[in-house]
Every structure is written in C-alpha cells, then in structure tokens.
Design goal:
alpha+beta, Elongation Factor Tu (Ef-tu), domain 3, OB fold (Dihydrolipoamide Acetyltransferase, E2P), 6-stranded antiparallel β-barrel, 28% helix
C-alpha cells in the first residue's frame, strides 16, 4: 500500500525533530563536578593558634665584682647548684712583666735598699753601744750621788743623756725595719719577670650562688684576667618556666588575662594546660617569611598548678604551639569556611538540590580555621558545595564527586 503524501511529510517531520532532540542532548553542557559537605551541629571552638617559646621568668647573671684573675670554672651548663654554693674563685691580678730597662732599674733599687739596710744596722749597733755606756755612766753617778760625791745637777745630766741615747736606739731600730721593708719591696718587684702568678698561695675571692637552680649559660670556663662586671654564669630555676607567644596585634586584642590556653607541639603526647598571665602593653614590628611587616604583641602564659614542665623535659627556649580558647560552645550550627563566598555584597553558599546548584544567602558568625559558625540561611543536613569554582553558577547542573 502506497503511503499518502501527508503521511510521508509527518514521518520526515518526526525524524527531523528526533534528530534535533538528539543533537541538543549531545551538545548540552556536562554537569560540573563538585565536592560537597553537609551543614552540621557540634562543638565549636573559636581559638587563636600561634607558635611560642618557653622562657624563665627570672634569671640571675653572676658576674665578677672586681677586676682580677679568674680560676677555671668547673660548673657546666645543666648542673644543679644550691644557694650559697661556691661557683668560682677570683685571685688578684698578676703583675705585668718587666722589660730589660725596668729590670735593671729594679736590680739597682734592690742593691740600694740592701745598702741602706746595712747602714741602718750599723747605726743601730752604734746607738746600742752608746746607750749601754750611758746607762753604766748613769749608774756610777747615781752611786756617787748617794755618797754625796757628785751634785744632783751632774746626776740629772747623766740621766738626760741616757734617755736621749735610748731614744736614738729606738729610732735606729725603726730605721732597720724600714730598710728591711724596702729590701722586700725591691725583691718583689724584681721577682716579676714574665707576668705569671707566683707558686705561693694567693687569697682568693669566692663567688657564691644567689639562688638554688640550674646553670643556664657559662660565659667563661677557662682561667684568665677578667674585668669588673664581666658575666661568668647565668642561673635560673626551671620550676619557674613560662611561655611567651608573640601574637598579631589583631589577635592580641581578642585575648584576655586568665584565658585558657592549650599547649601542644612540644614533643610529647600530653596536652599541657595554661592560662594567660599578662598581655604586654606595647608591641613591636617583625618581618614575616614573606617579607611583610607584622605588628606583634608578647603574651605571657603560665602553666597550670600541678604541672611540672621541667620533669617532662622542657627547658628555656623550647618551642610549643599555643591555642588560645577565645570562645567555645556545644550544639553550634556550622559549615566549612571554604563554602562561603561574597555575592552582591553579602555572604552566600551554593546548596545542591536535585542535581543543581542554588545560591543561598547566609549569615556567618565566628570563624575557627576551616569551620565557621552559621547564624541563618541553612538548616542541619543541607548539602553545600565546599569549593565552588568559576563554572558553578546559580542553577547550574552539578555532579557530586565521591
């Protein structure tokens, strides 16, 4: 049976429409592959995390009070000391070496002093002889005076002469002592030939520990001359450890004294607890690794009572990670921070419904790293796109990646 003309036209029309539909279906855009997450409820912690360093609240630099010659320091870094324990000893500084000219002058001065000593001894012998003669003469005149053979005036003259010669003998004795001291001084000057200390024992000044603690730094170990005020040892008590964290000024204004802090990253598995003791009133500028000037504020953290960081192996200058707990609450509606973007002057996210991305305005609250608090706009269980790219638009078809 031959088909009629209108039937042929209908057949070709249907074939053309089918071909156009197949062509449109083949040329339509493929769904955009996206990663998604669900809006959930749980514990939310708003915190500030920054690297810090342990330090000692108080340290003691032990220095020499006067210039002298330091004996070898036997203490080493890490040694424990008791209060009042001898730390090191200080001797008088040795005399400088003599050059040949000064040595010759010292030898001549010694010879002159020895000659004066011999002269003083001779004068002393003469004074003694004259004094003995005067005493004997006075004794004879006294006996004659008792028998009225000499006058009282002659007896007084002999007494006066005896007393004068006694005084001369005393002066001669003092002269011998002075000459002996001059000889010893000249010999001591001549004995210094190379600037080295003598073999004799010297009175040493003992410097003692002001506190009971640990040797943190040893500035000098070997013996030698030291100037007044030169530091030798640094002492401190590891029981007074604290943590200093240099926060960005924009984070420091959110921190308050007494705020709880969790300390991690110190090498152990235990999370150490602490609290903010002081926020410094002035900041400083630090250049970051990217070359950007940053305003930093020192924040001091105390360890909680009952914790002994020194027993765990911590010391001064150790690195820790400090997490400041600014705010926390249970049952908080939250979503990934990466899902948020700005659109038409407000925050928004893409919610996935029936294979399409729908732009939804939201009101975020606090942020804590990768998670943000959600105040309004979504409900628990809503599926949202976590990293929307340029191809994701309102109403676009999407395909969820596993």
């Amino acid at each position: 049976m031959t088909p009629r003309p209108w039937q042929r036209r209908l057949f070709w029309s249907l074939a053309a429409l089918t071909l156009l539909a197949l062509l449109a279906w083949a040329l339509r855009p493929a769904p955009v592959a996206v990663s998604v997450a669900r809006v959930g409820v749980g514990l939310f912690v708003d915190s500030v995390i920054e690297e810090g360093r342990t330090r000692l609240r108080d340290t003691w630099n032990v220095s020499v009070p006067v210039a002298g010659y330091l004996q070898r320091v036997g203490l080493e870094v890490g040694d424990e000391v008791e209060q009042g324990q001898a730390l090191f000893h200080l001797e008088p500084s040795p005399a400088p070496a003599l050059d040949p000219r000064s040595r010759q002058q010292a030898e001549d001065a010694l010879h002159a002093a020895e000659a004066r000593l011999q002269a003083a001894r001779a004068n002393l012998e003469t004074a003694r002889a004259e004094r003995r003669f005067a005493e004997a003469e006075y004794e004879r005149y006294r006996q004659l005076h008792q028998r009225d053979l000499v006058s009282t005036t002659e007896l007084d003259q002999r007494r006066s002469q005896r007393d004068r010669l006694r005084s001369l003998e005393s002066a001669a004795t003092a002269g011998v002592e002075a000459s002996r001291f001059e000889v010893e001084s000249a010999r001591a000057m001549l004995a210094v030939t190379s600037g080295q200390r003598e073999a004799l024992d010297h009175p040493a000044l003992t410097i003692r520990a002001p506190i009971a603690g640990t040797v943190l730094t040893r500035y000098r170990c070997c013996e030698g001359s030291v100037a007044a005020g030169e530091p030798i040892l640094e002492l401190g008590s590891l029981q007074a450890l604290e943590v200093q964290v240099d926060l960005l000024s924009m984070d420091a204004v959110r921190v308050r004294p007494g705020m709880r802090v969790q300390l991690t990253g110190w090498g152990g598995e235990t999370v150490l607890a602490g609290q903010v003791r002081r926020i410094e009133p002035s900041g400083f500028t630090r250049v970051s690794a990217l070359g950007v000037d940053e305003q930093r504020v020192p924040v001091i953290i105390d360890f909680d009572d009952g914790q002994d960081p020194a027993a765990l192996g911590l010391g001064s200058g150790f690195r820790v990670d400090a997490e400041f707990l600014v705010w926390q609450a249970d049952e908080v509606l939250q979503l990934p921070t990466s899902a948020l973007f700005r659109a038409d002057g407000q925050w928004a996210v893409f919610r996935v419904e029936e294979g399409r991305a729908l732009r939804v305005p939201v009101t975020p609250g606090r942020r804590s790293g990768l998670v943000s608090e959600l105040l309004d706009g979504l409900e628990v269980g809503d599926v949202i796109i976590t990293h929307p790219g340029e191809r994701v638009e309102d109403g676009a078809r999407v395909r969820i990646e596993e």
